[in-house]
Design a protein that fits this description.
Largest sheet: 10 strands, mixed
CATH architecture of the largest domain: 2-Layer Sandwich
Distance between the termini: 51 Å
Oligomer: single chain
Number of helices: 14
Helix content: 25-40%
Number of strands: 16
CATH topology of the largest domain: Dihydrodipicolinate Reductase, domain 2
Bound molecules: L-homoserine
Strand content: 15-25%
Number of domains: 3
Shape: elongated
CATH superfamily of the largest domain: Dihydrodipicolinate Reductase, domain 2
CATH class of the largest domain: Alpha Beta
Order of helices and strands: EHHEEHEHEHEHEHHHHEHEEEEHEHEEHE
């Protein structure tokens, strides 16, 4: 009989429960695939006596996740508690210091402490894996570190927060305003306990920073992710963007440029017929571009019990097989400190504004854009009953600096009612 790989699982919420179910229900399949049985030695969670729909009485119980992480009968510490610091970090550090391998779904912890934890793992001869932290069930970390390891990765893009994609696509399909759909998502239990993690783009920004480190061999730098959430997206923008042939997505883009590492998580327009444009509801999509493979599109569930537990088990089975990949694909000591790009790669922009409907108003806008070096590609003015005219402009490719100069000057025009809205159009 081969030696089982023994897990200690901290956190028995949705994902932890899902992992316990897989280990219990698929014991033979896992043993065949891993070449050895996978067993659970001990568990820990905030509450012991709770009906989780799975029997945990056979496992030792620890109140303290640090004690769980360092038990002699635990080979792999499975961290599913969440939170960037506190018990999750303390227990992960303790596990690594004790030479245990760690599998985590904790994007916030790795976005803030990924480099230090990867170094700690390597100096202890342990591995730290995090497939479940990015895009739920989509095996994107594995794709980057293994399947695409022969490529220079040129760009990584993704819709990696299902809640935001649900809100944006529901606004589009039902014609409902943001506040109403936000409340609907809340009722459905889609939002994180702190909803700004979702709608402020922070959760997706954490994920992007982990993918950027893995794709470009650099240290995780979440602080340099340019972050903007979806709170200011209006139903008018969703409709007008559709009218111009686009969908609005909370899109993450990471690319290494001559100006440094660009990491952006912000609402962008993408062509409505593109795979990203067609992504509906809570589903995630990651687009990976490499010099040899060109473009790979991965689509799948970004959250939930089964999908996230599936990703955790992928990492666990790798460890059972003695497949020991470095946290971010290369030894932690070789990860570079990338210079953050100060400005984004030039792109076309969508502009929406309301203009006083009087002679010369459009000419003033066109002049301001021209003076800033921003060229108009397409323009549309809509029928209106009141004294302000809704106007949409799609620019040719321009720098953000030139656009900001134009926006500043536009806001000072006497014909401009309110502040113009500007959204980047990403070429996908
Ligand atoms: N709240 C996230 C989402 C799932 O909506 O995609 C966990 O990262």
């Amino acid at each position: 009989m081969t030696t089982p790989l023994r897990l200690g699982i901290a956190g028995l919420g949705t994902v932890g429960t899902g992992v316990v179910k897989i280990v219990r229900q698929k014991a033979n399949l896992l043993a065949d695939r891993a070449g050895r049985p996978i067993a659970i030695s001990a568990v820990s969670a905030r509450t012991r006596d709770k009906d989780r729909g799975v029997n945990i009485s056979a496992y030792a119980w620890e109140d303290d996740p640090v004690a769980l992480a360092t038990r002699d009968d635990v080979d792999v510490f499975v961290e599913l508690m969440g939170g960037s610091d506190g018990p999750a970090k303390a227990a992960t550090e303790a596990a690594l210091a004790a030479g245990k391998d760690v599998v985590t779904a904790n994007k916030a912890m790795l976005a803030h402490h990924g480099q230090a934890l990867a170094e700690a793992a390597e100096s202890a001869g342990a591995v730290l894996r995090f497939e479940a932290a990015v895009a739920g069930g989509i095996p994107v970390v594995k794709a980057l570190t293994e399947g695409l390891a022969g490529n220079d990765i040129t760009r990584v893009m993704g819709v990696m927060n299902g809640t935001c994609n649900y809100i944006l696509t529901r606004m589009q399909s039902a014609g409902l305003p943001y506040a109403e759909v936000f409340e609907e998502a809340n009722q459905l239990g889609y939002l994180e306990a702190d909803p700004t993690l979702d709608v402020g783009g922070i959760d997706a920004g954490h994920k992007l920073s982990l993918l950027a480190a893995t794709a470009f061999g650099c240290q995780v730098d979440f602080a340099s992710v340019e972050l903007e959430g979806i709170e200011r997206i209006t139903i008018a923008d969703i409709r007008h963007a559709a009218d111009m042939g686009y969908r609005i997505k909370l899109l993450g883009v990471a690319q290494m440029t001559g100006r440094g590492l660009e990491q952006r998580m912000s609402p962008c327009l993408v062509p409505k017929n593109s795979p990203l444009g067609q992504l509906e509801g809570g589903t995630n999509m990651v687009v990976l571009e490499g010099d040899q493979v060109e473009q790979i599109v991965l689509r799948g569930p970004g959250a939930g019990e089964g999908p996230t537990a599936s990703a955790v088990m992928g990492d666990v089975i790798d460890i059972a097989r003695n497949c020991r990949v470095c946290t971010f694909g290369v030894p932690a000591g070789t990860l570079t400190r990338a210079t953050p790009a100060k400005t984004a790669t030039p792109a076309p922009y969508y502009l929406r504004m309301a203009l006083e409907d009087k002679p010369g108003a459009l000419a003033k806008v066109a002049t301001v854009l021209g003076n800033a070096g921003v060229s108009i590609d397409r323009m549309r003015q809509y029928r209106h009953a009141d004294s302000t005219a809704p106007v949409l402009i799609v620019t040719h490719k321009t720098t953000r600096d030139a656009l900001d100069e134009a926006l500043g000057a536009m806001s000072r025009l006497d014909v401009m009612a309110g502040t113009p809205v500007a959204l980047r159009i990403e070429s996908v």
